[in-house]
Specification:
With 345 residues, the chain is an alpha/beta fold. The protein folds into 2 domains: 140 residues, ATPase, nucleotide binding domain (Nucleotidyltransferase, domain 5); 148 residues, Hexokinase, domain 1, CATH 3.40.367.20. The protein has a 6-stranded mixed β-sheet with strand order 9-14-13-10-11-12. A 5-stranded mixed β-sheet has the order 3-2-1-4-8. Strands 5-6-7 form a 3-stranded antiparallel β-sheet. The protein is globular, with a radius of gyration of 21 Å.
Length: 345
């Protein structure tokens, strides 16, 4: 049995081709692709399949795809890509018996309970209990899900919590809200707490301080990564100010999200933007904002908060689902060389 698994975000799409049955699985292929290069999910999958042998393509039974958008009745409209996809149409086009589309944060949450200490970078130790956990991904977008570990596995509750309204809490926030409204109209938390949001926040900070933004940062392929790298030089006060402001806003959002999900089991932060900003999240601005919940502060102090170091946790989650939990984040050995498959290439 061969299964294709994928974690498809607004920036990167990661895939594995697995072969096995029951608790015995091996890895035949793994690759990462740039999602925006393609006009559709179908076009991306066609390019991916061109790397497989004819025999491999002919013997794929199922595809499990974690997708960055809400899934309804096997259909998804991607939030940060101009794509739509239908599971039945994909199965018919590629000749697979089954295609399962899963919200990316829902899939990711299935890998979190198996993470080891080396994959978790602490922001607050707290006192975890067997309670709800919150996972928030900050990358191209802002993803939110809640999960709880049970005897039978993991119960996951996906959401679109990243699209709730941005809620100003001080005069600076109100000015930021008005600044963004002139560009976008409705301002969600994702408009602020994402890679694109960090770029807009950098523009706003420069405008507030009367300093021209560095065009090279905003014109980079990944402006958020460029701003972070520039801040590390210690010669870019506007980049540093934007990241520090971002950290405080993220801490406040996580604090509110932890309250409404009763995440006493812990908060897990992941995604490319969050992972790169980890050194700034260890500063007071982030944790102070997280804890600033009035009478609830003593409860907030008991909630552990971690940043997930792995960039493959989403792929590990959908792998766990596809293999019916036989593989939950552990390394998968490469398949033995199949000379017949090579001959059919």
């Amino acid at each position: 049995m061969k299964v294709l698994v994928g974690d498809i975000g607004g920036t990167n799409a990661r895939f594995r081709l697995l072969e096995g049955e029951g608790h015995q699985w091996c890895l035949r292929h793994q690759s990462t692709w740039s999602s925006p290069r393609f006009d559709s999910l179908e076009a991306l999958l066609e390019a991916l399949m061109s790397n497989f042998s004819r025999l491999e393509k002919a013997t794929i039974d199922e595809a499990w795809l974690a997708v960055a958008g809400p899934v309804r009745a096997g259909r998804v409209t991607f939030t940060n890509l101009p794509w739509q996809a239908d599971s039945q149409a994909l199965a018919a086009r590629f000749g697979w018996n089954r295609v399962s589309l899963i919200n990316d944060l829902e899939a990711l949450a299935h890998a979190v309970p198996s993470l080891g200490a080396k994959e978790l970078m602490p922001l607050q130790h707290g006192s975890p209990g067997n309670a709800n956990c919150l996972v928030v991904a900050v990358g191209t977008g802002l993803g939110v899900a809640t999960f709880k570990t049970q005897d039978h596995g993991v119960d996951v509750f996906a959401s679109e919590g990243g699209h709730i309204d941005f809620a100003p809490a001080d005069p600076d926030d109100f000015r930021l809200l008005e600044y963004l409204r002139t560009r976008y109209g409705h301002i969600s938390q994702e408009r602020v707490l994402s890679g694109r949001g960090l770029a807009d926040l950098y523009r706003f900070v420069c405008d507030e301080q009367g300093a021209p933004p560095e065009s090279a940062l905003l014109e980079a392929d990944d402006p958020a990564a460029a701003i972070n790298q520039r801040a590390e030089s210690a010669q870019a006060p506007m980049a540093v100010a934007a990241i520090e402001r971002f950290s405080g806003l993220l801490g406040r959002f996580l604090g509110n999200a932890a309250l409404f999900s009763a995440a006493l089991g812990g908060v897990y932060l992941c995604g490319g933007v969050a992972t790169r900003l980890y050194p700034y999240l260890t500063n007071a601005a982030f944790l102070d904002a997280f804890l600033d919940r009035g009478r609830m502060k003593p409860m907030m102090e008991r909630i552990p908060v971690w940043t997930i170091a792995s960039t493959e946790v989403g792929l590990n989650g959908v792998t766990a689902l596809a293999t019916r939990y036989a593989v939950t984040g552990m390394p998968i050995d490469a398949c033995a060389v199949d000379h017949l498959s090579q001959a059919q290439s």
